[in-house]
Each structure stands twice: as structure tokens, then as C-alpha cells.
């Protein structure tokens, strides 16, 4: 059988059409730069959607992966393994948690968290305490349970009926939560910063009040830190800077620096409810992923690196504000560390994909958070010169889109 070169057309031929990637296919990365099949170079502000915290092909991660590949790749959870135990010890030593469940993605970490919350309530207070409260515009993954808890109806459409006992209230609205929570509530689930929902940080007073309401109603507080975790906001985990400690944390994306892994750290008393046989995963905690994740944490959990995240955040914001002064294209610029959202002005609502396409044509990779927000989640160690160079390209892309819009 002969193999011909693959292209974007190959995608339409052989891949399920749930994605619509652009024509380019990146084939190589280095630091915060990518190159496509034609050798065109791009500055990467997308970071694999908040995953590549140390950029592409970080030498320490490459070495760790190669070293572990020469030892053992997979054992399943019939056995434990050294990298999983070392990573668990690292996570519990650095967070509020006592014990950790490993899986392969953020959705799986959230699935485990939601199941654990219901199981814990069932074990301690019976089947009636099973309701979960989440927030409008939240995103928690793409399994049936996690799209049900997520606060965006578009991800549930066509998959009904969805699991029952889930309700949603406005984010940063403590009165709405106070009116919704009850003795039937087993958990409240929140992102410290809503990522897919538009890069909206939690108000610290709101987060503290959520914690108090959970305590008052004996409900668990789950923090989804799939996007905010592992240094993204300038703390190892965002809950630290908020001063609010959850009962269950979910982490993935950046945890593996590009290698698929997820984790659910929690307290020992809660973890007891995931007793033998109650939950599982074949690949979860595999040696390759755990070895890489520990290397990621060893590098990211460094005061100098985390301080650099906050300094680079300011550079991004200053550059975006300068673009806005020239073009009046943004209604608001929101950021938490290197999770940055630029909401488009009223007259440009719904046009975010056009800005992405224009930027990509010029050699800059961005993201969106809905149709109205440009999102940036670059490497935490992106060089300042790459930030400035990328922003110069974004400036050109904005000018190009506005020129077309004004001529329309």
C-alpha cells in the first residue's frame, strides 16, 4: 500500500467532521514558534489551548519522556508505578489535597469530581443530597455529565436527555447562588476564571461567599482548574491567590505540558468514597504522562517563573491597550496571568473568527472564547520579543479586518 502526502483535504476524507481546522498543518515547534508543512513560521499565542506552558519541545520534558520510554510505558491500574506515586506526592505536597486520582484529560478529571461529590453525599447523607449547582457560561468538558454541568446550552443540544439534578446560576452573583442552594445540594462547581466563557475572573468576595455557602449547606466546593492550573494565572493554582480552598480540585491541560494527563486532588476524608471498584480508567496515571507531569511541575513551581507570568501579563495588556488606542476595537481587556481575553467592541460583536483568520495569515496563532472574545494562552516562558512581535502582527490583523469591515 502506498502512502501519499496528507493535507487539509485528507481531514475531510478520513476524520469525523466535529472540527473545522484551517488549511495549515503545523509539523514542528520550538519554544513559542511553530512551522507548517510549507515551512511558514508562526508565533504561538494559543499554546495548545493553555496546554503548552513550557512551549514546544522543552528540552527537560523531551529528556524526561525519552528516559521513561526506555523503562516502562504502561501497566494499567492493576499495578501502581513509580512516576504516578512521585507525581501524587508532588501534587499533595504542594496543594491542600491528601490524595489524587489520575486520568487522561480535563473532562475525565471533572467527571471523576462530579461522581465523587455525589458518592460522598450518598455515603454520608443519603440519595436525596445529589444536586449540583454550576454557573452560566461555564465549561467543564465534553462528556455527557460534564456538558450537563457546563453552563452553555449549545454543547448539550442534540444529546438530551442529559443527567438530572443539575442547575445553573449567574457567575459572580452570590445572591443567585444563595437562592438556589439547599440541603439537597451536594456540590457547587466553579472555575476561578471562566475560560471558554470569555476569560471572566471570579470576584474574590464572591469566591469566599461561595465557600461559606457550601460550608453552611454541607456541600462540596469543586474548583475546575483545568485551564487556570499549573502556573497559568501566576500562582501554581489559582485558588491560592483567591484565598479560597476547595474540597476537590481538577487539573489537566498544562499539567502534562502537552502530554495528555488529568488529575483530581482532594482531601482524604472525601477520597474514601471512591472505594475499590467505584471508578477507574485504563490509562489513568500511566508512567509516561506522570513522569512528564512531574517534570512540568518541578519547572513551573518556581517563584521566579511565576513572577515572570505576572510581568508578561502586563506586557500583553499594555500591548493590547496600545492596539485598542489605535483601532478602538476592544470593549474590555481581561486577564489573569497569561490567560488573556480581549472582548471586541459593540460594532464588532460576532467577528472574533475573522480576527483569528487574519492573524493566522500574517503568522500569529490566537484563540477565541466565544464569538466576541480573542483569547491568548501562550507559553508561560514566552520571550518578551515574541510577545512584541506577535502583537505587531495582531495590530496588522486588526487593521486588515477593520479595513474590510469599513468597506463592506
UniProtKB/TrEMBL annotation:
Pathway: Amino-acid biosynthesis; L-arginine biosynthesis; N(2)-acetyl-L-ornithine from L-glutamate: step 4/4. Its EC number is 2.6.1.11. InterPro entries: Ac/SucOrn_transaminase_bac (IPR017652), AcOrn/SuccOrn_fam (IPR004636), Aminotrans_3 (IPR005814), Aminotrans_3_PPA_site (IPR049704), Class-III_PLP-dep_AT (IPR050103), PyrdxlP-dep_Trfase (IPR015424), PyrdxlP-dep_Trfase_major (IPR015421), PyrdxlP-dep_Trfase_small (IPR015422). N(2)-acetyl-L-ornithine binds at residues 142, 281. Pyridoxal 5'-phosphate binds at residues 106-107, 139, 224-227, 282. It catalyses: N(2)-acetyl-L-ornithine + 2-oxoglutarate = N-acetyl-L-glutamate 5-semialdehyde + L-glutamate. Keywords: Amino-acid biosynthesis, Aminotransferase, Arginine biosynthesis, Cytoplasm, Pyridoxal phosphate, Transferase. GO terms for molecular function: transaminase activity. It is found in: Cytoplasm. Pfam families: Aminotran_3. It comes from the Bacteria. The keyword Cytoplasm applies. Its cofactor is pyridoxal 5'-phosphate. SUPFAM superfamilies: PLP-dependent transferases. The modification N6-(pyridoxal phosphate)lysine is found at residue 253. May also have succinyldiaminopimelate aminotransferase activity, thus carrying out the corresponding step in lysine biosynthesis. This is Acetylornithine aminotransferase. It comes from Marinobacterium aestuariivivens.
